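Objective 1b: paired records.
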Amino acid sequence: MSLISRINTRIMELLPARGGLHIYLAPRRLVAVVRRGGRIVEDGALHIPLVNPGSQWKIPVAALRGLLGQTATPGTVPPRSPSRALATAGGAEGLSPDSRRGAIDRAVAARLPVSISLSGRWCQMVLAPWSDALMAEPAASRFLQMQLSAVYGDAARTWSVSCDDAPYGHPRLACGIDADLLESLQSILAEHRLRCAAIEPLVGTVCRTLDGKPTAFAVAEQGRLSMAVLSRSRVTAFQTQPCGDNWHNELAQAWQRWTLRAPELAAIDDVAVMDLSGVARHAQADRLPAHFRLVEPPFGPAADFSRPNDTANAAAPLHRAPPAAQAEAKAATEVGAEAAAATEAGDSAMVKLGAAA
């Protein structure tokens, strides 16, 4: 178990009791929730829609910087215009004055620990076989980098890599994240003197927060579908693939194909499904096979992206990022084209959850 993994595990054990600010970053949205005692506090959830055609990470990260920059910390003067602060940062401009973000302001001002869940769009994972190289650094990092490169190509050589704490002799579950993305998130938190509790894949958040620990779960994000199998509270198999708006049918078909490749999965009769896709939810439960059941996401009402005008979402309507941020996103799209192609090429690989911070 790496030092980073040990630190993150300990901090996350403390978060339910002490409370904290939890951020979900996705290509076209930012969600922020404040928890205390394991529950989302009153007025403690905010959903900010984003326009990000390239699905790169610079616009959501800029929106996070703008969100935190609106908050008055001790000894500072808050910006006069919240909407201008976000627009300058490159996020969703135009947060309304009555946006329900009081608890989020207080959480930042109190410098509560922050945990960030990243969309599967930016987290590439692989199940690495056991090797003695995993016993110590730097051999462990080199070995994991090699495993990721074998699936995702040369782009993986520049990623920041970490792994889970699988028992000795068992496969290690590695996660690769763009090093610049990770550095940007850490820099933003440092600017506001906020303690980083964890930066992890969304799948890791789902795995840790699911009630009842089902045998398997699936996560539908906009443009991406992920499926996982659990054993003793650990993800033992994972698969991800692109998907469209009709993810209900694609989920059933993807699960069937996975079962054909791994017949032991046919015995699973309870798959928890978490919908973060933004597709309208009406009659979704009726469109899923019997052994799939919808469960609530860990971000509360703010995560119901299919209802943008609901008071629970309490953010301004969708806005386009300013030209400067759009130019940055275009550049990021061009630079990241190779990594994106590698991601799609590796979508059929069997991978497993890893965390990075």
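Objective 1b, second protein:
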Amino acid sequence: MKRFIAFALLVLGLFIGSNVATERGVYAATTQEVSLSLSNGGVYYGEVQDGKPHGKGTATWGKYKTYTGEWKYGKRSGKGELITSDPETETPQVIYEGTWANDKQNGQGTLREYFKFSKYSEEYDRATAHQGTFKDGQPVSGYTVIKDLSLDTELVFRYMNDNVMVALGLEDSNDLNVPLKAENMSLFASLNFKKESGFLMQYTEEKKNVYQYGTYKKGPNGGTSLFNGTIELFDPYNDKISIGIVKKAKIKSYKVVNTSEELSKYRERIIKKKLYLLDPYISNFKKLYNQL
């Protein structure tokens, strides 16, 4: 009996020892830090397994592109940060912090991009930031901020998910620090995709106001359009409104009417009634803007 117990303990000891040795071997394979040349031209330094990046490490592609974070079987997976910047070209500076899968941005993250329209520009002409969910390298939901110094609408904010889209445009970034006013807003939209309803108010290139409301539907490329509803085009020079009735995405009737009040006041009255729709989003808009 004692021999059997001793033999059983010996076998158990060998079994456990074998497992420990195996686990240590795998651990060593995934934690040793080495340098590798990647097939896409990059250079990697960090943890590896079976000759591929696996664990934590850093890859660089030339002088201006670096990824630092987690890898899985040779691909960026897990949490990581990507930075690209080439001051000698018009290529945008890109900073992404968040999760990855299958070598692309997938999951939650923050993406910031800075554009120069000329490589001789001292400052960035356009900056964008998105915070939310990414799929295969593209933002699909969350908060977006666009600051473009070359446009009349200097700031655009947008929140979007599967159910809603809310957008706000301001002519001047300073208007973000004061209570929102209709005269400072160049864009205001709120769409409910689930109910297929909403409205949009914005300027046209001729400085006329467009106000449209009714039923909205998503297009095949992710865009939205008025399907059934009304389009009002304000003519501030003549105090007239051109009204178009839309059915199945086509204008079915059209007329021009005189207004009994100034169009600026009419516009302000419409927006004031809808400002509450921005309350759940404005705080996060400001936080993301401050990251640019």
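Confidence is low (pLDDT under 50) at residues 1-29. The two ends are 75 Å apart (CA to CA).
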